[in-house]
Write a structure and sequence with these properties.
The structure holds 2 protein chains of 2 kinds. Chain A is mainly α. Chain A folds into 2 domains: 55 residues, no CATH class; 211 residues, MetI-like fold, CATH 1.10.3720.10. Chain A has 11 helices and no strands. The longest helix of chain A has 41 residues. Chain A is flat. Chain A starts with a helix and ends in a 12-residue tail after the last helix. Chain B has 2 domains: 173 residues, 3-Layer(aba) Sandwich (Rossmann fold); 68 residues. Chain B contains 8 helices and 9 strands. In chain B, the strands form 2 sheets. Chain B has a 6-stranded mixed sheet with strand order 5-6-7-3-8-9, sandwiched between helices. In chain B, strand 1 and strand 2 form a beta hairpin. In chain B, helix 2 packs across helix 3 and helix 3 crosses helix 4. The longest helix of chain B has 18 residues. Chain B is globular, with a radius of gyration of 18 Å. The N and C termini of chain B lie far apart (41 Å). The chains are: A mainly alpha, B alpha/beta. At the A-B interface, helix 8 and helix 9 of A face helix 2 of B.
Amino acid sequence: MSIAENQSRISESQPLYDADDLKRLRAARFERFGRWLLPVVVLIAAIWLWDRIVVWNEIPHFILPRPGLVMQTLISDWPMLFSALMITLQITMMALAVAVIGGVGLAVLFTQSRLVEMSFYPYAVIMQVTPVVAIAPLIFIYVDSRTAGLLLCAWLVAFFPVLANTTLGLNSADHNLRDLFRIYGASRWQTLRYLRLPSALPYFLGGLRIAGGLALIGAVVAEYVAGTGGHGSGLAFRILEAGYRLNIPRMFAALILIAVTGVIIFAGLSFLSHMLLRKWHESAVKRET
Amino acid sequence: MTPAPMGQRSRVLDMTRVTKTFNGDVVALRDMDLSVNSGDFISLLGPSGCGKSTALRLIAGLSNTSAGRITWAGGQSENDLGVVFQEPTLMPWATVAQNVWLPFRLKGQSYASVKDEILEALRLVGLENFLESYPRELSGGMKMRVSIARAMVTKPRLILMDEPFAALDEITRFRLNNDLLTLKARIGCTVIFVTHSVFESVFLSDRIVVMAARPGRVIREVHVDAPYPRSEEFRTSAEYAALCREASDALREAMGEIA
């Protein structure tokens, strides 16, 4: 039997992996498990180390509680912490929704009218670069409604990434496609609907993921500011309140809730992005490399 | 379908002393005259910067003439033009069928009402089994076929093609050249084709307009009288070689190598 015939028989009967294939398969397997396993291992190690540091150094619980005590507090204070979480989450989601509507709406206006863009874009930048903690006290002086004040603060932080990314996306439509739309006599509305908005979708979703986290940060910062004025009952206010009472385990428990909420928001928006782009965009398409 | 003799073909378009300048002093195109008749396959051949693409943009209405005029016989209507660019220029978020639907969609026609035309156009380019595929799932040649299907789906009076096969490999390019002539024979379209390739222009065209640069202008017209359909035999014929030689000489003249 010739070598060629032999090779042909092998390839017909079973897959033939060379060294590069095996290396690639191993790397893919490691990537698949490592992505989830490694952060979990790091988390467990960090919690263990935290616990040991408290025990070895005999640190009192009102300075640094053990992780177990934080978990106990989380369970025992759950009704209070959960209602506070819901309030923070409500402000975050409302701010994100308004940021999306405002950001996308203004971005569309910018691309439809250069005059509008030149007039308003610098002010959008000013709003972005001014720290929200500096503006928030003024907002709570001038805005009577606590919810409206919190919402305004969170919106100020979350709005810019949506605006900037969507504007960039709307202006990034393929120039040949733009010419094609002109040749076919497309109206402004048709060009926006069928070309510019789909082109901007990946950029918008990138901005949305950033804005999701920023909306939470904005809501928490605003609650801090509002909390000092005696208003508010969100998670940030609970952290402040616990701090005044030296209830450090509750501070940690509230902090964990904020962090987990941020991760869930990011993961949810990443999932949404993946679902919307998975069929056509490079960032979401799996390739065999 | 064999094109009618030149004298019997109806006029599609006239370019009369068309000039295009940029910033007032850069002359991209000077005094270009061109008559396009129904069924013509005209290649614009020349070095970079000779105004080939500028001429196409002027015809497409993407740019205004600085002097001269472009006249559509019987006036210009919505269905006059189909365009194929150097890149396939497909919408990556839309399926093959949705991409081909685009010219109809922009006229407010629903997919259901033009489904037959879309299927027919895709059948003509051999992609009737890829209706629901996305552009990323297609090869470069297949993407270009979709682009051609989109350009011809409305049966326009004139199809403009701006170096459509320049980015493809030689084998795909040869195949698409053959397919393009088959399509032309079936639907009898009129084409203005921009290319850098002497061989491609001789194989495809019945007229080759050779252009020179700085300023962009027409220096010669080469007539290719070989009848359609043209097969691989034509590519290896003495007639083809002689025409390539003639077009090459004209191109060398355009590039200033022949006084």
